[in-house]
């Protein structure tokens, strides 16, 4: 059958590339906090990924403007890309904060939160890859939510320890900011999962 109205078939490819960038950046952050060496170099690598994510966002917006038919509602496509971009931005912010604050040694809590973020990113990659068929995303989305709940409890306990363990005031401020940035980024990953849920509800 001849298609009379043009349909841009590359949206799915761009969704998947953006999600893979997010996963790569999250793994680089996890490795950076875990190994804790070559910080400036590692931050620069994350910046490159974030910049490529911005390029993909721009390309998606251009395609939204010119496409007659899109795979999902334009608003949902825009929201999905925005939420994925928020996660990439957050990863960059966390990485840069370690350098700006001249953190000498990462905490175990920061390592665990970075691992949770990377696990969320892995679930988002799998979910986005299934968008084309709109089937099988539910388990991935649930995992993203469950991981956010785990992180929420962990970050609250980590902040409480800052005020309980007699840490220097300046270090309390530094670590509270880092934990907040990590938690906000984990929340952004959950926001992306919620957009995927909305897409499923509208199109399944």
Structure characteristics:
single chain, 0% strand, 204 residues, disordered N terminus, mainly alpha, Methane Monooxygenase Hydroxylase, Chain G, domain 1
Reconstruct the topology from this structure:
Layout: H1 11-35, H2 39-66, H3 74-100, H4 108-129, H5 138-164, H6 169-203
Helix pairs in contact: 1-2, 1-3, 1-4, 2-3, 3-6, 4-5, 4-6, 5-6
CATH class: Mainly Alpha
Rough outline: globular
For the record, the CATH architecture stands as Up-down Bundle
| Unreliable residue stretches | 1-6
Structural features, described:
- It is built from six helices and no strands.
- With 204 residues, it is mainly α.
- The protein has one domain: Methane Monooxygenase Hydroxylase, Chain G, domain 1 (Up-down Bundle).
- The two termini are 24 Å apart.
- The relative contact order is 0.15.
In short:
The longest helix has 35 residues, at 169-203.
């Amino acid at each position: 059958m001849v298609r009379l109205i043009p349909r841009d078939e590359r949206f799915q490819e761009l969704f998947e590339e953006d999600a893979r960038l997010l996963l790569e950046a999250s793994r680089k952050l996890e490795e950076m906090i875990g190994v804790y060496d070559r910080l400036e170099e590692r931050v620069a690598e994350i910046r490159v990924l974030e910049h490529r994510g911005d390029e993909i966002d721009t390309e998606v917006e251009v395609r939204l403007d010119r496409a007659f038919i899109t795979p999902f509602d334009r608003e949902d496509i825009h929201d999905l890309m925005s939420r994925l971009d928020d996660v990439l931005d957050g990863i960059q912010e966390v990485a840069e904060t370690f350098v700006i604050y001249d953190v000498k040694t990462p905490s175990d809590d920061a390592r665990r939160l970075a691992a949770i973020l990377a696990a969320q990113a892995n679930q988002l990659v799998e979910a986005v890859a299934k968008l084309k068929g709109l089937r099988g995303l539910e388990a991935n989305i649930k995992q993203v939510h469950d991981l956010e709940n785990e992180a929420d409890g962990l970050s609250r306990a980590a902040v409480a320890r800052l005020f309980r363990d007699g840490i220097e005031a300046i270090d309390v401020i530094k670590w509270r900011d880092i934990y907040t940035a990590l938690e906000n980024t984990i929340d952004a990953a959950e926001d992306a999962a919620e957009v995927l849920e909305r897409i499923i509800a509208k199109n399944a």
